[in-house]
Amino acid sequence: MNHLSELPLPKYIWQVIKNSSRTERLSCAAALIVLIVCVALIAYFSVMTSKSREEDRAPHEWRITREMWLAQPYNYTYFTYDYEPLLLVVIQNTVGPQCHRFQACAAELRNLQGWFIKDMGYDIPYSFAVGNDGRVYELRGWGVEGAHTRGYNRCSVGIGFLGDYRGEMENHAVVTPEQENRTQLILAEGVRLGHLRKDFVVVGARDITDSASPGSNLYNAIRQWPNYDHQNRFNGLTCDQIREKFKDVPLREVPKDEK
Predict the structure, then answer these.
(1) Same domain, 206 and 237
(2) pLDDT digit string (tens) for 115-136?
(3) Residue ranges making up the domain that contains 145
(4) Are residues 89 and 200 in contact, defined by beta-carbon separation less than 8 angstroms?
């Protein structure tokens, strides 16, 4: 009979250790240290990941106000009210860094705003921005004239997608369904608040100006939207001409659920 098997567990382990060679004991000690280190690392990274997620939790599921991303205050002097409800939405890309988390997008917008105010003398130019995290960030917002598309700022809403969407560029951004869906949500808000016509249309900056924006990836995406203007009706027109020419003209058929 094996008397060791009849011993209590602590004594059994001690007897095994006593009967093992020095090399075996060192090997067991090394294995135990490795095990402890692995468990400690797993626990550490689990806590840090949880903490990071907690810190990156956005204050709203998809619509981020200026206050939420800690924008600098700015006193605007030009507005779009004379042309509201607006009929034109211009899509662009910022050709800057991508951001896939709320904190990163907020930081990128603060950097972008700081550069525009310091070097250009005016606030960040778009009405709204769309992050790679799928959230819509309020920039100038509704009713304020933008500085995104020369000749059309008084009579349009400008939306800038964060990132470089030129498909031919290395590390280019890719449009996600979440970005597209939430862009439509903010545009629906504009209709609901009276800032946009129900039959508003969307164009890329390249449709009305000499520009590569919004990049081939984003441009191909918006051309699939039901509110995209395939007729290229606004190139070369001033805001006053657009208002007069289309004030009583339906721009597109509006689905029943949007009326």
Answers:
(1) yes
(2) 999 999 999 999 999 999 999 9
(3) 63-258
(4) yes
| CATH code of the domain in which 119 resides | 3.40.80.10
51 and 110 belong to one structural domain: no
Query: Within this chain, do residues 42 and 101 fall inside the same structural domain, yes or no?
Result: no
- Residue 204 CA to residue 222 CA, distance in Å, equals 8
Task: Please compute Rg for the chain using Cα positions.
Answer: 29
Confidence (pLDDT) at 1: 47
Assign 13 a pLDDT band (cuts: 50, 70, 90).
low
What is the average pLDDT across 64-70? Answer: 98
Peptide bond into 10 cis (omega under 30): no
8 A C-beta contact, residue 200 and residue 87: yes
Ranges 4-18, 97-111, 179-193: which has the least confidence: 4-18
Residue 14 and residue 96 in one domain: no
Residues near 29 by Cβ (< 8 Å), separated by ≥ 6? none
- At 78 the pLDDT is 97
In a shared domain, residues 71 and 175: yes
The answer to whether residues 192 and 79 belong to one domain is: yes
56-63 contacts: CB < 8 A, separation 24 or more? 56/101, 56/102, 56/103, 57/102, 58/102, 58/133, 58/135, 60/135, 62/134, 62/135, 62/136, 62/182, 62/185, 63/135, 63/136, 63/138, 63/185, 63/186, 63/189
Using left for φ > 0, alpha for ψ between -120 and 50, and beta otherwise, residue 218 falls in alpha
- State the Cα–Cα distance between residues 136 and 128, nearest whole angstrom: 7
